[in-house]
Amino acid sequence: MASKSVPLFPFLLLLLLLLQTLTPTHQFEIPMGPRDEYFITFNPSGTYVEVDVKNITKSLWDAGYKIASLVLENQLVKIVPFGSGGRFIYDPNDTDTVKIFNNNTVTIFAPPDEAFRFESWIILDYQFVTSKVDKEAFDTGSISEGSKLLTCDLHYDLTVSEVPDTVTGAYPCINNVTITQWDIYNDGHILVHGVENFFNPRYKVNSPRVGQDIAVI
Predict the structure, then answer these.
(1) Contact 118, 16 (CB under 8 A)
(2) 35-195 in CATH: which number?
(3) pLDDT of 30-57, one tens digit each?
(4) Which of 22, 34, 121, 147 is deepest in the core (most CB within 10 A)?
(5) Which of 125, 113, 111, 71 shows the shortest CA–CA distance to 210?
C-alpha cells in the first residue's frame, strides 16, 4: 500500500468527498428520525473482534477500487458504530483496526473510482449496512425484493429493488443500483461488495434506474 499513486484529478475529488463526509449537509427532506436500535446492537461490550483495516483497503485496492480504498483508510473506523471502541469514542490516532461488537456484521458497498464525485446527495455512511448481506442471503430468499436494509446513516434505509432469478446469474439491485462484485473482502464480520454507483437517499420505489450515466464533475 505504500507505493500507491492515483491521478491528481481523482485524488482532488477524493479530498472534496472527505470534506463533505466529515461535515455532512443533507439538502433534502429527512424521512425519519434517528433510531435507537442503530446503537443498541453495536453497543460496546466485553465481546468484540478487531479487524485490520489494511486487509480491507488492500483487497479493495487490488480489486481496482482505489479511491474507495483510500477513503476507507481513514473513514472506516469513524463510520462503523463504535468502531474504535466509533461514533462517541473515536480516537483519531487509531485507524489501524476497527472493532465489531456483539458478533455483529457490517456490509460495505464500494462504488468504482469513476463514481466518486462531489454532489450533495452522496453520503458515505449510506454505503454501510449494519447486517450481513451476501449472495447466499439473496439465493435463499432471506433477503428479497422490498427488503429494508438498515444503514450506518441515522436517517435512511436501503430498499432491495430487484432480485433476478438465480438461474440467470444476474446481480440484485439495491435502491436501483446494481451489485457488480461479491466478496471483495469477507472475514465474516466485515463484508465488502462492489456496486455500480453510490446509493441515492432520495430513492423511492419505481424511481428510474441509477447508473453510470450520472454526470461526473
Answers:
(1) yes
(2) 2.30.180.10
(3) 333 445 555 566 777 778 889 999 999 9
(4) 147
(5) 111
